[in-house]
Each structure stands twice: as structure tokens, then as C-alpha cells.
Reverse transcriptase domain-containing protein
Amino acid sequence: MNEDLTTLSEWCTANSLKINVSKCNCMLFGEKRGAQSGGAVKMNNAEVHRVTEFKLLGIIIDDKLKWNHHIDYVSRKISSGLYAMRRVKNYVPCSALLKMYFTLVHAHLSYGNVVW
């Protein structure tokens, strides 16, 4: 993997691009812990930080490709949206509640559902 990162770094340099290694993360996918204990991943002589999960475009991905963390995240978002709707339901018309639903609940349910 380090050889591939070196090749990528050389290509970026040749095309006047710079990779900020401090903003890079590395995640190894797999069930077995033996695969996770590989050597350090380096780019431009700096070690790339290894993570077990990260958020990519609003979707939380973990090293086992399980969706528990993402589902918890979406559940919290939806719960707070439903709470807000409950608080104002007696003060706003039904059309406003419907707009609130699509903004605060449905958007979180439908975003990225093709992926997860």
C-alpha cells in the first residue's frame, strides 16, 4: 500500500497538487483483527492516521462495513426533528408541519439510503 501511496504522491507532485497528510485517514476493512494489525501506512514520510470509522459525505462508515453507528446517528437526527415538530404542532398549520417533516425527518431517512 505504501508503494501505491508513493506513486499517488509522485503523480500529485507532477500535476502541481499537494496532499495534506494531516487531513488524511486510513481504514483497513475486514472482520479479522490480524488484517488490522498491518504496518504503518506512510505518505511523504509521514504516517497516515488509522481510524476505525469516519464520516464521508454524511454517511458513517466503519471498518467492518456495519451500519450501527450510522443508524444511531440518523436516529438521533430524526428524534430531534420529531421533538421539534411535537413542540410546535399546536401552533402551526398542518402544511407547515408537513414541510417540517420533509425537512427534519424525511431528508435524513432518504439521504444515502441507496448506499446503506
User: Anything to note?
Assistant: DSSP finds four helices and six strands in the chain. The radius of gyration is 21 Å.
